[in-house]
Amino acid sequence: MKVLGIMGSPRKGGNTDLLLDEALKGAKSGGAEVEKVVVCDLNIAPCREYYGCLRDGRCVIKDDMEGIYPKLLEADIVILASPIFFYGLSSQAKALIDRCQALWARKYILKQVDRSGRKRKGALIAVGATRGKRLFEGPVLTAKYFFQAIDVEAGGDLLVRGIDKKGEVKEHPTALGDASELGKRLVQV
Q1: Radius of gyration of the chain (CA)
Q2: 16-73: per-residue pLDDT in tens?
Q3: Mind listing the domains of the chain with CATH numbers?
Q4: What is the C-alpha to C-alpha distance for residues 44 and 68, in angstroms, rounded to an integer?
Q5: Cα(171)–Cα(160) distance, rounded to whole angstroms?
Q6: Which of 157, 160, 162, 163 is nearest to 185 (CA)?
Q7: C-alpha distances out from residue 37 to 3, 116, 132, Å
Q8: Residues 88 and 14 sit within 8 Å (Cβ to Cβ)
Q9: Cα–Cα nearest to 22, from 147, 123, 95, 97
Q10: Residue 174, CB half-sphere, CA atoms under 13 Å: how many?
Q11: pTM over 0.85
């Protein structure tokens, strides 16, 4: 079983990064092979709506996203992790998601669907500084449609409010343990 963690925060070693690492450790303890992609280390241009993907399901932009597509398609589990900026995902995470328009086109326009019958799962880890009632509505909806586009069934989210300063999540009473449990739960058959 392959687990792909997508670290969508520009702040390495921060709260989002720590939670994703714990989720990946939890998955690994359940026997999974894990890989972490740090989006801010990659050159991923935003979608430019060239619509070349509508012809053959491939993005015409040539950058590091070319190496991400196969990882997204091969993973049995995809964990998307992002801080919340203005009630949305980080621009790094959103650029990667937007570039999955090519995978959306494969599925919905070209009807190139995975017929293997394997059940793939996905989860969102999101951390926000504020405690706003609607803080996670946009990111959860975006993650839901991202997972649908890449043929992944949403398998649970870890949404943490009121965390901002780098490393502050270590002081949260349950967040790191919850992240580990999320990773373990996702790899259970």
Answers
A1: 16
A2: 999 999 999 999 999 999 999 999 999 999 999 999 999 999 999 999 999 999 999 9
A3: 2-187 (3.40.50.360)
A4: 10
A5: 12
A6: 157
A7: 11, 25, 29
A8: no
A9: 123
A10: 7
A11: yes
